[in-house]
Amino acid sequence: MFDLGALAGYPISYALGVSGDGTVVVGESALADLSRIQAFRWTAADGMVGLGYLPGGISSVSIAANFGGSVIVGGGSTSSLDFHAFRWTQSHMTDLGTLGGTYSEALGTSQDGSVVVGESYFNGSTATHAFRWTSVTGMKDLNFLLASAGVNMSGITLIDARGVSGNGQFIVGDGASAMCCWLGMPHPIISPEPRRSPMPSG
Q1: Which of 18, 88, 107, 180 would bridge with 175, disulfide CB 3.0–4.6 Å?
Q2: What is the model's pTM?
Q3: 186: preceding bond cis by omega (within 30 degrees)
Q4: Would the pLDDT of 109 be above 50?
């Protein structure tokens, strides 16, 4: 176990993710009263480096990195006090927007960093929908992508996407009433499985 320290002036830090090759650690570092939180990227060579904020924001958190750690994703506050998913690369943090609400957060990225997945408020509500983002398509609702691919989505709402395979085709996350797995975008297969109750103790 190795102490990664914290950003200068920030006494608290949390590691939340690591690159596929294990060389880059990402997370957040905070003031004691949590009034300011900043995303970080750590390497053995550079130590802990702050990634900054979205324009006008005062908080950010990095959650996941691509295989080599050159692309980092997470979320941060904006000048309007919304919270948006971001994609960071080469010292630049890009706002990925939302699905029409005031909140989104990126939770995973593909091996090369070209596909980002996460969750977002949908159409002005506080209900989250899973999303998939690329630089070509922007942020897209996975519920819409699946329905457009011919999947019967009756009674199922995908509320978040928590991980994506290296090639960006396999996405996993949660549904509103089932644990779901989505395969083979853009021609996915959905396999809902009801949540199991914990086994009784004793």
Answers
A1: 180
A2: 0.86
A3: yes
A4: yes
